[in-house]
Specification:
The protein is an alpha+beta fold and 113 residues long. The protein has 3 helices and 5 strands. It has a 5-stranded antiparallel sheet with strand order 1-2-3-4-5. It is globular, with a radius of gyration of 14 Å.
Length: 113
């Protein structure tokens, strides 16, 4: 059974992958890993491929404020403690997951052959 979620007009399939002895929850879009879920403090956040998120969404930070890529400060404009370490971990891990589990074909945002 596939779990599917919609963010705006885009559909994502949720999958689990074991990587470095850790299970990671990833979101696929058009057969490519577009994002991963990460637990940070009391939140469960979505970390998107930064190039892809800007292709898919007009204003991702406003539309989906739980994107860890864009959320670096709280409501009082105070930086979240440890956020840079989390972002660095997510960037590296997402890249490694994409390298291992993405198909060879490159992502085509227009769906044109």
């Amino acid at each position: 059974m596939e779990l599917v979620i919609n963010l705006g007009e885009h559909q994502f399939m949720i999958a689990e992958h074991m990587f470095n002895n850790v299970e990671h929850t990833v979101l696929y879009h058009n057969d490519h890993i577009a994002a991963m879920l990460v637990h940070y403090k009391q939140w469960r956040l979505v970390f998107f491929d930064e190039e892809l998120v800007n292709i898919l969404f007009e204003n991702p930070a406003a539309q989906f404020p739980d994107f860890i890529n864009f959320m670096t400060v709280d409501n009082n404009n105070v930086p979240f403690e440890g956020i840079n370490d989390v972002r660095q971990y997510c960037q590296l891990t997402l890249y490694q997951l994409q390298t291992e589990f993405d198909p060879v074909v490159e992502f085509d945002p227009l769906g044109v052959d």
